[in-house]
Every structure is written in C-alpha cells, then in structure tokens.
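Protocol step 6 of 9: fold each sequence in the batch and record its structure tokens directly after the sequence line. For illustration, a two-sequence batch is reproduced in full.

Sequence one:
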Amino acid sequence: MLLASANVNGIRAARRRGGVEWLAACGADVVTLQEVRADDAQLRAAVAGTGLEGWEVAHSPSSTKGRAGVALLTPHPLKEVRTDVGAEFDGAGRWVEADVLLDGACVTVASAYVHTGEAGTPRQEEKQRFLEAVGARVAAWAREGRLAVLTGDLNVAHTEHDLKNWKGNRGRAGFLPEEQAHLTRWAAEHGLVDVHRRLHGPGPGPYTWWSWRGSAFDNDAGWRIDYQLATAPLAARAVRARVGRAATYAERWSDHAPVLVDYDL
C-alpha cells in the first residue's frame, strides 16, 4: 500500500497549480487530503479528469465555507467511514477515518487537520482539546489491535529536529511543550510510530511546510508538521518514506509537501 498524504491548501487551487494531477500520478493506493476547503461537489469536480475520478471518497467538509475540510480517496473498497472524534468538533472538517480493504487486509486510515493555534489564547485551548480527542481515538485503535495510521497536518513540530529555526520559535504555537507532549504520549502509551522519522533517521528535517513568503523554501527553512503515525502492527510493515518536495519554488502547488509511505501488507 502506497499512502500519500497532503495538505492541498485548497483543492481547487491545487488543481489549478497541478497538484491534483501530481497526486493522481504518484501511484498511491490511498490519498488523504487536508484543508480541502470545498463541498462534496467541488471536491469531485476538482479531481475529475485526473485519474482520481471514480475513486471512493470519504469527505468531512467544514460547516464554515472555505475553511478546513479533510478527505480520503482510494480505488479500493471502503468498509466503514467515521467522522466522530468528539462532539465539539462535529462539522469542523478536521477528521475523517475509513476502513480500507486492500488485498484481504483491512487498514484504518485517518486524515486529520489540526489548526495552527496561538499561544495563550482560547484558540490554543481548542487546539489542545482537539489533540486530546485525537489521542482518545488512537488509544482505541491500540486497544483494538488495528492496522491503523493517522495522517495529516498536525501543526506541531515534535522536536527540534522538525523545524529549521527551533530556537527562534520557542514559546510559539506549533512548538509548545504541551503540544509536543501529545505526540510523545501517543507513542509511549499507545504505540504509535512516526514511520517517516523511523525510516528516514535523525533530522534535521526533512521538512514538509515552508512559508510562501521570502526565501524560506529556497533556503529549506521549514517545519515538519505533516505526519504518518502508525500503530505498531502497521508500522512494522512500513518499508519506505519520502517527502514530495517540489524541485523549485515555481513548481510548488501548496505551501506543504506530500508525505508518502509504502507499507508491505
């Protein structure tokens, strides 16, 4: 199973910039998307004519037009789709998970979008509550012994290896100890494995997000905030990982780059 995850920064904008075609051509068995920013009809229109049309679609749009939204696309059958990660977040467009049937295996794949937050504000408190809700869900995966993986833009750099300017970002949202503690706890208590980091080895990087502004991309002054975190049974089957970083600034189709992992099922 090749699993590709990407924050598309708006599926319609990504289509105009060639991103949807890139995802269609990468050979993935499952594609997860974040910040879709579209309703069902707009999502299907954006993938029409690219090789992704006709695929199964699990989509959780935001009730606020033009915001958030997560989705999962696959040519393989879906057994069940769930969007309930806590009543507070119903309609937020931040969580969708599906049981995908691949060659006799059933793999639970989730696409999550965690908003950026702002230290010391109610927005940051909401971010913490969402991370807690995600933690409860992955704990259930561990108890059930699932082949499962959490993909998406978590807007948290877990360690100093995951962003270029870590010293300058101390105390800022995305690099707060209380945010990082969630990822640490998911690993320690529920056995989630950061498969990209495990396969790649120590950092710094590879980064998955760079500002559109200035020369951040050209200087590789980025953050690694997009992940594939797998339960232990699935992580043991991860064999290769990479970041689909554009060759040049002009070829970027999002401010994020996709994360791709091969699993030997």
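Sequence two, same batch, same settings:
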Amino acid sequence: MLIDSHCHLDAPEFDADRDRVVAAAMAAGVRQLVVPSVSAATFAGTRQMRARYGCAVAYGLHPIYVAEHLDAHLAELADWLRREPAVAVGEIGLDFYVPGLDAARQTALFEAQLRIAREFDLPVIVHIRRSQDQVLKYLRKWRVRGGIAHAFNGSRQQADEFIKLGFKLGFGGAMTYSGSQRIRRLAADLPLDTIVLETDAPDIAPAWLAGPPPGRNAPDQLPRIAAEMAALRGMEAGALLAATAANAEAVLGPLGSVHEAGQPE
C-alpha cells in the first residue's frame, strides 16, 4: 500500500546495489517507486528503471542542472514523451536556494516544460525550493493537469494555492526532524487527500540516518517515515498508507507495482 512518489533510483549512489535496494523496498511493503529524471543525459537511465523493475517514471530537466540544459533538450524531452510511457513531466521547477543558478534561464526552461506538459496532457512533478510563489505564478499561467509539489516546505497559504491548482504535496525525511516545526504542522493539519509520501532517495535522509556520518536514504525508509506522519496526525498507520497511495494515483494515474530484476512487468 506504500508508494514512494519521488525516488531517484537511477542515481549513481545506487549503482553498486540497486537490485538489493529494490528488494529491500518491496520487503518493507513499498509497492511502487516514482523515478523522475533530472537531465537529458539521464533519460535512458530513468527508462531503465521502468524496464528493469517496473518503476513509474517521469522525464524532465531539473533546475539545479540548468547549466547543462540546452534548448535542444526540450525537443528531446518532447520526443521521449511521444515514444516512452511516463506518468508526469518532472522533475522540473525553480531553485532559488543554490547560489549561482541562472534564474532567468531556469524560468525559461520551466515555462517551456509546462507547455510540453500541456501538449501531452501530463501532470508535473515540481521542485520548489525557495521558489513556491514563483512556481505558483507559472502554474497559474500555464494550467497543467495538476501534479506533485515535491518536498513541500512552504506556508499553509502556499499549500492551499497548490491544492487549488490540483496538486498533491510531497512529505518525506524533512518531516522526521523535531526542529522542522512548520513542516510537521503541515503534515499534521493538511487535509489527508492532499498528501503523498516520498523519500527523494538518496537525498533528504530522515532523522535516524542523519549521522554523523550521514546515511544514504533509500525507499525502504518509507514505512518509518509514514509511521512518523501517522503519529503526527494521530491516526492509524494503515489508513494513512492507503490514503497517500490513493492520492498518488489520483494525480499520476494507475501506477502498477515494482518487481525484482528479471521478472516480467
């Protein structure tokens, strides 16, 4: 009943033991992993996650790698979406936290990818770090078919605006830190039908992996993250798992299940 709505399983951090990571997630009760790409150079690796394990995948150009993205990659993205099954366009968006990223170029790429999402009638998975209001501005302009606001850490007012636009809000490891009071309040108080669970593995490790040295996040951590949210909401964990899985499929469509390498889809 668990769906990890954001997991970079194709990242090089998993190259040495990816089969074991997927098997551990399945053993922990994780039914599906949504794997978004980050650049044109990673599209083939993202597709391999679908071919090898049955993951749900998305294709997009991540704002952190803005210096790598060429205009030609937008046409390449559209070509991949014509040829390959995808549940969303992502990971796309804006990042105004990392210093030195070209804001104007990020915005141009984001708008272009929103237009592509409209063309293919796909939802989007958006990166919103220090950029919630700016992302909302362009979502209002282009009106895509909803999506997921990844690693949500904005205000309740911003949360409500994303929800109005048909978005679910992603919560993961950041919620498990006792000092993350705003995120924990949102996780406790937002309507249950607006929330999805995610790990962002190998990043955003939960509190119990914080170290030192910090541990690698992985999708098998999702049940414990879910238990943390259930405790914050004062509800039974099973009901939370069922609701968040249903929310992910409500916005991304039927997601199927992962399987071990070599098994048929």
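Proceed to step 7 once all outputs are recorded. Observation for sequence two: Strands lie at 2-4, 30-36, 56-59, 88-93, 124-127, 147-150, 167-171, 195-197.
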